[in-house]
Amino acid sequence: MNKIVVGSRNSGKIREIQAVLADLPYCVTGLSDQTIPDAEETGTTFQENAILKARYYCQHTGEYCLADDSGLEVDALDGAPGVYSARYAGEQASDEENNQKLLSALTGIPMQRRTARFRSVLALAGPDGSLMLAEGVCEGIVLFEARGTGGFGYDPLFLMPDQRKTLAEMTLAEKNLVSHRGNALRAFKQQLVQAAKEG
Ligand code: IMP
Questions:
Q1: Which member of 8, 35, 101, 181 has the lowest number of beta carbons within 10 Å of its beta carbon?
Q2: Which residues sit with their C-beta closer than 6 Å to ligand 1?
Q3: pLDDT (tens digit, 9 = 90+) per residue, 128-141?
Q4: Closest ligand 1 atom, residue 70 Cα
């Protein structure tokens, strides 16, 4: 393997993944073939969806494909929006619409009960049928209003108390140091390096 295709059309995700994997001896690219239809995310867990996407894009490209399935789990909402984070406010919802829906759902919930976590599950599927999985989380609090312009998705609403910043107030490098995806990618990298050693 010398190339890894990131099975996603989310440029925010792709940038974060490329940054953490930059020191590996692999070329990490996005999906260059725009004619491949989007994978259908029919799973009910992050792991199911990550595996389904990685295998789907691997089949279509013939390359090793890395997929991330991720989302926000809000305690006061019993873990919602969870795997439905991207389509919380509807099938084609924008980040802005999803953020508005989240704020509405949390109306009247005080700061101490607005705890939440981002979760990311990564799956790497190979043309030889191989599969590698890794997971990462990051804990934080859903604010009452958006702060910051970086990142994507729910980043402007997600405060990391130790850093006193939302994920949208961080640079890409700062976010990767603390984020669910950064944590998942570091776990993934360790496995990849180990597997390469074992040949
Ligand atoms: P997926 O593409 O089905 O994995 O959906 C991921 C969705 O979860 C995104 O569209 C965002 O709404 C949310 N999400 C996942 N990771 C992040 C992140 O790093 N920041 C903000 N929102 C995220």
A1: 35
A2: 10, 41, 68-72, 85-86, 98, 118, 151-155, 167, 179, 181
A3: 999 999 999 999 99
A4: 4
Number of C-beta neighbours around residue 162 at 10 A? 9
User: Which pTM value belongs to this model?
Assistant: 0.97
Q: Could you report the per-residue pLDDT of 41-71, keeping only the tens digit for each?
A: 999 999 999 999 999 999 999 999 999 999 9
Could you tell me which residues come within 8 angstroms of residue 149 by beta carbon, excluding any fewer than 6 positions away?
A: 156, 168
CB count within 10 Å of CB 17 equals 26
Question: Residue 70: exposed, middle, or buried by beta-carbon count in 10 A (0-12, 13-18, 19+)?
Answer: buried
The one-character DSSP state at 88 is: T
